[in-house]
Every structure is written in structure tokens, then in C-alpha cells.
């Protein structure tokens, strides 16, 4: 049986890796195919993302794809602005595994 402090340490290690689930129309369509999309830290690699998913959601990812989100210039109310970029991870799960995001 694990101690509460061990569990908190595991979640604490993976805390900065996964920022939040990416909820868009495209990502919600992908959940039917057991693919979940998350915003992740720019410095995170696939191994760290896999460990974070295991620790937080208690499921074993089958595969992970990572892609960068490019920053975009936008105009709002006549002013220039920038929509920040980042990094997103596509997490593929085995059949039968699910992650409750909402």
C-alpha cells in the first residue's frame, strides 16, 4: 500500500508537464478514437508526458505524438496582438481505457 506522501510526490513530479486538456471540436471528435489532446510544457518530452498521464489519470498510453502550436498575429479592436503558441500532445489509449476530462 502506497503512502499518501508517495502519491503526492508522483503527482508533484508530473505537475508541470501537462498544463491542461485541449478542448476543441477536433479534439472532442478524436476522443471517439481513444485519442486525447493536452497542452504540455515546451520542455516536456514524450517520456515525461507518458509518466504524467500514468500518474494523473492512472491509464497506460499506447502511443504519444507531439506537435508545436505556432504563435499567430491577431488584430483586436484595431490593435495588434499575438496569440501565444505552445506544444500539444496527442495521447493514444488502448481500447477500453478512458480519461474523464469534462
From TrEMBL:
GO terms for molecular function: rRNA binding; structural constituent of ribosome. It comes from Candidatus Campbellbacteria bacterium RIFOXYC2_FULL_35_25. GO terms for cellular component: ribonucleoprotein complex; ribosome. Keywords: Ribonucleoprotein, Ribosomal protein, RNA-binding, rRNA-binding. GO terms for biological process: translation. It holds the Pfam family Ribosomal_L23. Belongs to the universal ribosomal protein uL23 family. InterPro entries: Nucleotide-bd_a/b_plait_sf, Ribosomal_uL23-like, Ribosomal_uL23/eL15/eS24_sf. It comes from the Bacteria. One of the early assembly proteins it binds 23S rRNA. One of the proteins that surrounds the polypeptide exit tunnel on the outside of the ribosome. Forms the main docking site for trigger factor binding to the ribosome. Part of the 50S ribosomal subunit. Contacts protein L29, and trigger factor when it is bound to the ribosome. This is Large ribosomal subunit protein uL23. SUPFAM superfamilies: Ribosomal proteins S24e, L23 and L15e.
